[in-house]
Amino acid sequence: TDLNIGNALTGTNLEVQLLLNTRENPDCSEKLNEHNVTASQYLNTSKKIVFVVHGFRPTGSSPVWLGDIKTLLLTSEDINLIIVDWNRGATTLNYNTAVENTRKVAEILKNYIDQMLAYGVSLDSLHIIGVSLGAHIAGFVGKKYNGRLGRITGK
């Protein structure tokens, strides 16, 4: 979600989009249905699943590094790459509001991961990469699984 400084001034209500890219759809993300894992055309639950979570977005712009990390991860390994877009909720001049939203985003991710687990995905196959407040989100999700997620990387 690409917002602007006007959105930051007024604040944004939290909305989370889960955007899937694979080697089959590297340039056009598939928006996942957070309530129905099986509705995906590209999600292959037998492959590793990597979530990338951005942080605070005071101006509303998309993270400049996102395209590079997507390309790097998809060329390095045949994975499911899920970009966690919570720009609506991270875009605000009030940092504390964004901080409050991190636990809500973690709960949404936990609910989605729980659905994946019901369809045979292993916690060992999950990797969450979080940047800034996204690293906090990754940690909150990890805590919900008592540290049993395959991997968490925070920056």
Automatic annotation (TrEMBL):
Its main location: secreted. It is found in: Secreted. The gene is Lipha. Residues 10-154 form the Lipase domain. The keyword Phosphoprotein does not apply. InterPro entries: AB_hydrolase_fold, Lipase, TAG_lipase. Keywords: Disulfide bond, Hydrolase, Lipid degradation, Lipid metabolism, Secreted. One of its GO terms (biological process) is lipid catabolic process. One of its GO terms (molecular function) is phospholipase activity. This is LIPHA Lipase. One of its GO terms (cellular component) is extracellular space. It catalyses: 1-hexadecanoyl-2-(9Z-octadecenoyl)-sn-glycero-3-phosphate + H2O = 2-(9Z-octadecenoyl)-sn-glycero-3-phosphate + hexadecanoate + H(+). It comes from Crypturellus undulatus. Signal peptide: none annotated. Pfam families: Lipase. Belongs to the AB hydrolase superfamily. Lipase family. Hydrolyzes specifically phosphatidic acid (PA) to produce 2-acyl lysophosphatidic acid (LPA; a potent bioactive lipid mediator) and fatty acid. Does not hydrolyze other phospholipids, like phosphatidylserine (PS), phosphatidylcholine (PC) and phosphatidylethanolamine (PE) or triacylglycerol (TG).
